[in-house]
Write a structure and sequence with these properties.
With about 500 residues, this protein is an alpha/beta fold. It contains 17 helices and 23 strands. α4 crosses α5 (about 150-155) and α7 (about 170-190) crosses α9 (about 220-235). It binds inosinic acid and magnesium ion.
Length: about 500
């Protein structure tokens, strides 16, 4: 049985017609790989949240390309499937056009691409504001991807946003853009003009194309350039909410592709260290025009038995704690090999062990190239993330720790701070916490409690069924099931399409 039949059989036992794939951690759990493997089964693949802050690598004709907006299912366009960028996505037209051009260069079809007319637009104003704020905040920054995501969602809820549909009506586009720029001008005036100039003339903002030294933004240049971008994908713009709902009604198979992760959700994550969309199943369903009750199977994806985070914010099990967080916020991949030449997954020094896992798991951001912070799998965070409507589990990257001698799992936290009131409880020094509380004070004042297991010390990449897995790994998975109340359904044991099993 190949991976597609294995997955189809799994979905059949669940009588699934609509499936969602969401990330239960801080993003980068390899959900793109799960979506790619399920895309063979689906008729419609749809994204509903986030924007070009997401990133996945797709191999076309033997060379790999980073994609940020186009759904992972685009590889299956040849099979007549639809790939939808839903209304909940914030869309940067420049990046979409770059991705389309890349597909054209590689002669890969994208006939089935559909773009929501209601998706909000990421504009140069958003990218500029995102970067200016992060630069000014320095120490207190969020560590965003600099893609303008936060400011775009801000304009949306402030009722100042522009949508893809506005690109098709240039006079309306200009009117709304002028209004938005004028409403936000007070924000831009608060920044150091030298910094404004530097950011406005950087490559991320077209090298100065949209810069006007007097007014900061050249509205006409933006209108001109952005309506030109729209020409490139105009025939793909439709009401995708209606399209997805009709497909569901017509009993088509639907696959929803999550972005970022539950712990980065603006509603459920480690606020304020989050992205600006709701990355949970609720945000995802809504962002493609569905209700959560329309989704039969929601697969939560988690990296195991290590996990990662990019950007700032609490990460209780991080190898090397603050030292790692600081290093990862500025280092690049090549610095790492020089500074930690002996790092490996069994290094005695925690910081080095974390570097070793990063190297073994290729944990460098697809969008920013930043090293991802690494830590042990965290059950309190996992238990918390499972509270929202996940009814299947896929664990990924297990093969990365094939050679690791001791596997640790964080089972609970011990609170170490001063008395603190939260959600009707008073935490005292020494309190034990088993399901994470999304409060930055709590998450900054805990020490993890670990349980150690002997590693399986054998290569699992070729396993295709449960009976081919080492007993030591099955013992760990059984522990995970008992502690979280959720069995594992799928295991990804390597990067290739076939490296997945249903257990
Ligand atoms: P933003 O989404 O660019 O505003 O970034 C907010 C936070 O979310 C930062 O910590 C980013 O590192 C993180 N983030 C955003 N997108 C991703 C992603 O696709 N994978 C992992 N982290 C992400
Ligand atoms: Mg990614």
């Amino acid at each position: 049985m190949n991976s597609q039949s294995r997955l189809a059989a799994f979905l059949k036992t669940r009588k699934a017609r609509s499936v969602a794939v969401v990330d239960l951690q801080f993003g980068d759990t390899g959900k793109g790989g799960i979506v790619d493997r399920l895309a063979g089964w689906a008729d419609v693949i749809a994204r509903g949240t986030g924007g070009a802050n997401a990133g996945h690598t797709i191999v076309l004709n033997g060379s790999s390309h980073a994609f940020h907006l186009v759904p992972c299912g685009i590889l299956r366009d040849t099979e007549g499937k639809l790939n939808v960028i839903g209304s909940g996505v914030v869309l940067d037209p420049r990046i979409l056009v770059e991705e389309i051009s890349m597909l054209e260069r590689e002669k890969h079809p994208y006939k089935g691409l559909r773009v929501s007319h209601r998706a909000h637009l990421v504009l140069p104003t958003h990218i500029a504001l995102d970067r200016m704020r992060e630069r000014r905040a320095a120490k207190g920054k969020i560590g965003t991807t600099g893609r303008g995501i936060g400011p775009c969602y801000e304009d949306y809820v402030a009722r100042l946003g522009l949508t893809v549909n506005d690109l098709l009506n240039p006079s309306e586009f200009k009117r709304k853009l002028t209004r938005t720029i004028s409403a936000n001008s007070y924000l831009f005036e608060s920044f150091d003009p030298e910094m404004v100039k530097e950011i406005m003339t950087s490559p991320a903002l077209g090298g100065g194309k949209y810069y006007d030294p007097k007014t900061i933004f050249n509205t006409d240049a933006i209108v001109r350039e952005y309506t030109k971008y729209a020409k490139k994908f105009e025939r793909h713009i439709v009401d995708t909410d209606a399209l997805v709902r009709e497909a569901l009604h017509d009993k088509k198979k639907i696959l929803l592709e999550g972005a970022q992760g539950h712990l980065l959700s603006v509603d459920y994550g480690t606020y304020p260290y989050v992205t600006s969309s709701d990355c949970s199943i609720e945000g995802l369903a809504k962002g493609v025009g569905l209700q959560t009750s329309d989704v039969d199977v929601t697969i939560g994806v988690a990296k195991f038995p290590y996990m990662t985070r990019v950007g700032e914010g609490p990460f209780p099990t991080e190898f090397g704690g603050t030292q790692s967080a600081v290093w990862c916020s500025s280092a690049r991949k090549d610095d790492e090999a020089k500074k930690y030449p002996n790092a490996g997954v069994n290094s005695k020094d925690e910081m080095e062990q974390g570097v070793g896992m990063r190297i073994a798991g290729h944990e460098y951001g697809a969008t920013t190239g930043r090293p991802r912070r690494t830590g042990w799998f965290d059950l309190p965070l996992y238990r918390y993330a499972l509270q929202t409507g996940v009814n299947a589990i896929a664990l990924t990257k297990l093969d990365v720790l094939d050679e690791c001698k001791v596997i640790k799992i964080c089972t609970a936290y011990r609170y170490t701070g001063p008395d603190y009131k939260v959600g009707g409880l008073t935490l005292k020094k020494g309190s034990k916490i088993t399901s994470a509380l999304m409060d930055p004070v709590v998450l900054a004042n805990i020490t993890p409690i670990y349980k150690a297991f002997p590693g399986w010390l054998t290569s699992i990449g070729k396993a295709r069924s449960k009976k081919e897995l080492p007993q030591k790994l099955l013992t760990i998975l059984d522990f995970l099931r008992k502690e979280s109340g959720m069995p594992t359904d799928l295991l990804s044991v390597g990067p290739d399409r076939e490296d997945i099993l249903a257990i």
